[in-house]
Amino acid sequence: MQGAFCDRRPRQHRGLSAFGRRNCAAATVAAVGLCAGLAPAWAAPADLAVATTPVALADAATPGDPTQPGHRAAQPRPTIIELRFGQGLQVAAGDGGSSLQVRAFVRARQSLTDPKGAPTAEALVRNAQLRFSGHALRPGLTWRIQLGLSPTEMAINGYRLLQTALVRYTWTTGWSVAAGRAKVPYGAQRLAHSSELQFTDLSATVQELHLDRTSGIFVQSPAENRADVSGVVAGNSPGFLAGVRARLRPLGAFDDTVEGDVARSPRLRVALAGSLVSAVDNLSTQVTRGEVYPEAWTQTFHTALDFTVKYKGFSLHSEWMSRQAKGDSAYLDLGHKVVRVWSRSAYGAHLQLGQMVNPWVQVAARMARLRRMDGTDPALRSVDELAAAVTAHLRGDDFKVQLEIVDLFSGDFRDGMVTLRGQVALFW
Hints:
Blueprint: H1 10-14, H2 22-38, E1 49-57, E2 76-84, E3 88-92, E4 98-115, E5 120-136, E6 138-148, H3 151-156, E7 162-170, E8 176-183, H4 188-191, H5 204-209, E9 213-220, E10 227-234, E11 240-248, E12 269-282, E13 298-311, E14 314-325, E15 329-333, E16 338-342, E17 346-358, E18 361-372, E19 383-397, E20 399-409, E21 417-427
Antiparallel strand pairs: 1-2, 2-3, 3-4, 4-5, 4-21, 5-6, 6-7, 7-8, 8-9, 9-10, 10-11, 11-12, 12-13, 13-14, 14-17, 15-16, 17-18, 18-19, 19-20, 20-21
């Protein structure tokens, strides 16, 4: 959350402190909170703002000697509390010294898969996240914590609740440095939040080749510039990971990691980005995730290019990725036995198109291709993907219902695995 939130609407809330009694203010907060909990979130588009107990003193209303006639005592600034759908719960200290935002994200889906005449059904809660963010001491010092609570997320995350924990300092020049655990700046689709995807999941290419979260130092140039760069240096235990992503937006800055053009941009938006990552002494088959090797043994080079266009509800997103390992396999002596381990070298691309057919309905189509490199892990197979989806944006990307059909195949698409999937996503 940006520090500017603390002064977002001071005039609107200062009047609330005129009640003069703390018990009245506390009762107001309790009543409003109870009403907000009973009312459906999507049925309350108006902001909810409450001023609570004063926590700081404002500048004197009348400067000068307090002993002079007409001088008024300093007025307290109230703590501001806002409860708004799509922004969650926001709390800001009256002196601007700190703020807090709490948001919740839930994504539930039902799938029906037909692998060559043997249909299976699956229902799951794909995501159940809590996100905490804010600033402390000064607006430039921000922090963010994200927890993944669903069984699926915990299994992917090694049965740990913590997904992201990051502290960032941003200078007045716009440059920032952060320390903690976050996504590697590599490829646009994986950098998007799950609530901002046109389909219920990543493409087949990105699912195999993306890099997940890591712990390290992150650097970002001013994101509002037409050209910007981000990088990471991380200790990828027991090895090392370093990467950089450079992005060019020649017609003006916008967020190219948000898929689709739900806002129906009146101006043409174009972004081109490239990413390079090197990982040394990998302990996992996919560097930041996957099966764990008995011991670290290989080095991988990762390359990605992505291209995005948005204009008046139309969107185009294309991405190419490659993972090249130094060595296809190795024999590791574990003392009591010798085992053979494999790398997973592959490359692929996808093309994704979307169109808002009216202010709240979007259709999308995707074609993806993944190819294993010769000599790599024989368990890794080449695959093609054809997919189509329709999304009802009931409240933008914060509340939407998606329906899609996906065909994964190798060779003839008629012999593939077809999946029908419905999903509801709510980002309060």
